[in-house]
Amino acid sequence: MEVGAVSGILDTTLALVFTWVGYKTSLIIYKYTPYSYPNARIKAMEARLLTEQRFNELAESGTLQDFAVSLEDTDYRNYFVEIQSYNVESIERAFEEALAGTYEMMAKILPKRVNPFFKLLLEEWDVRNITSVIKAKFAGEPAEDYVMEIGFMFPRANAIAEAKSIEEILVILEGTPYEEPYQKLLLDEIDVRTFETELYRMHYRKLLNYALSKKDEERTILEEFVRLKIDKMNILTVLRAKAAKLPAEEIRPMLIPGGSIKLESLLHVEDLGMALAELDSTKYGPVIRDVREEVERDLGVLEKVLNGYILKRMNELNRFYPLSVAAPLVYILQKEREVKKLRAIAKLISDGLQPERIKELVGDVA
To answer: 8 — alpha (psi -120 to 50), left (phi > 0) or beta?
Structure first.
């Protein structure tokens, strides 16, 4: 073979190699570089999460005002500025606003290819607002007390609370995804509980569809996160229904499609204990098994266990995919747990419990 021919083959081979290396390099840059800055910020935010020692110090606050003042050196201080009366309701609202602010921040700092997911997560406050005020309206309660100034639908939720009749609400919801379910409610085709379930179904359908539209690890992480959240809601719904002795035909319409485990067998068992036994054969069996007796006495224990399981799985994915959407999801779960503990402390202080008892009870909250 002539020297020129060999040289040509080598040049072609080198060109292909460099093209392949360039493609792979650009792919890595596209996939991982956009997460470098937000994940660095999230690491800094994680360092500011409250420690158990700090929770114990807060439990020793004598009054709700002292409790709020003790948080002035934290990220919550801006949410307490406008509180005029230190009561449980105003403090809980401040914590909800702080949690929503975390979702908003993630939507701002994360890459454009995933930040819509966090905007969708924010829509859960729309569902809460709409369902809360409508339930209050149908129960004849003051709906204004249930409106939170959070979410994209806050102005409409406020308008619903001020509506003079339940028929007027349909006009307010016109053009929104909630119009059709509310129309069914007005026509007595569904009850208020089913209306609420339908709104949550719509919400989780949007989250799951978005997750399934992604590729590679982004799809893996987001899909598992959504399915785990659906599992948690469904498991708690079924077990509460079993504790109340509800039959399968009443439970089935309350479930959210899209979870990772099948729950049909649980619907037909006789009681809570048998439902827990059915769960033993699922992936949740190992984490439930050790606390089964406690769960039979208090379903709040199960919620804590399921929250812990979801956080554990997201942490595992975060270690496997260190520059990914797993990091913000882990932080959000940690923030939710922190807010839940803070709300519990505020409520227990308001109830007049002694600091040692508050520390004991809050230690079980997660």
So the answer is: alpha
User: Which CATH number goes with the domain that contains 284?
Assistant: 1.20.1690.10
| Distance from C-alpha of 366 to C-alpha of 304, rounded to nearest angstrom | 5
Virtual CA dihedral for 228, 233, 234, 237, nearest 10 degrees? Answer: 160
pLDDT for the residue 138: 92
Phi, psi of 365 (to 5 degrees): -95, 135
CA distances from 301 to 215, 309, 365 (A): 35, 12, 8
pLDDT of 4-43, one tens digit each? Answer: 665 656 556 655 554 544 433 444 445 668 898 899 999 9
Contact partners, residue 115, CB within 8 Å, separation at least 6:
106, 107, 108
pLDDT digits (tens, 9 = 90+) for 316-365: 999 999 899 999 999 999 999 999 999 999 999 999 999 999 999 887 66
Considering the domain architecture, whether residues 301 and 253 belong to the same structural domain is answered as yes
Quote the tokens at residue 298.
Answer: 């208090």
